Amino acid sequence: MPLERFSAAWREEYVRSSAAIDNSKESTSCVFCKLSTDDVSAESGVLLKTEFSFVTLNAFPYGSGHLLVLPLRHLQGLGDLNDVEYADFYLTLRRTVVALEKTYAADGMNVGMNLGRAAGAGIPKHLHAHALPRWDGDTNFMASIGETKVLPESLQSTWQKVHANL
Q1: How many CB atoms lie within 10 A of CB 140?
Q2: Which of 12-16, 51-55, 162-166 ranks highest by mean pLDDT?
Q3: pLDDT digit string (tens) for 148-158?
Q4: Which of 16, 37, 113, 153 has its CA 20 to 30 A from that of 7?
Q5: What number of CA atoms fall less than 13 Å from residue 71's CA on the CB side?
Q6: pLDDT of 146 above 60
Q7: What is the largest CA-CA distance in the chain?
Q8: 129 — phi, psi (to 5°)?
Q9: Residue pLDDT, tens place only, 63-98
Q10: 65: closest CA among 102, 34, 112?
Q11: What is the per-residue DSSP string for 89-157?
């Protein structure tokens, strides 16, 4: 039984917004740096803060549970992290993946980074890793062409579910 074709047309609002354009350019303003100063709360979308990193909801998720792990310090590449920041970043990423596994019991997990605009980073000026639960038959770049659906969930619901496991 074929499923309806997946469409992420709702992302167009962000992609064309002045905020997305500003976030993709080199400037003094950084949406992630602003988030890094927010408290952990459902209102901010920040789920966890460590000494050198933080976890937040992806404001424009590709699927349920799509989270971002970021260093607190504004930098672009992995090589810019000092050894302590690097360890904290990857321990936080691991903690995030474990929390998503507990929360969603998904069939798999996408974990990755797009380093630089040419690699597909929507906000290339502040390093961040994506963690996204996946299910058999769920969307991915190939499957979306093959007519699949996204499992929808509100950001507030994601925050409540995952925060309990972080």
Answers
A1: 16
A2: 51-55
A3: 445 567 888 88
A4: 113
A5: 22
A6: no
A7: 51
A8: -115, 145
A9: 889 999 999 999 999 999 999 999 999 999 999 999
A10: 102
A11: HHHHHHHHHHHHHHHH--SEEEEE---SGGGT-SSTTS--EEEEEE-TT---HHHHHT--------HHH
Structure tokens belonging to residue 25: 């350019």
pLDDT for residue 102 is more than 80: yes
Domains and CATH numbers, the chain: 9-163 (3.30.428.10)
Residue with tokens 């380093």: 115
Closest of 162, 125, 158, 132 to residue 33, by C-alpha: 125
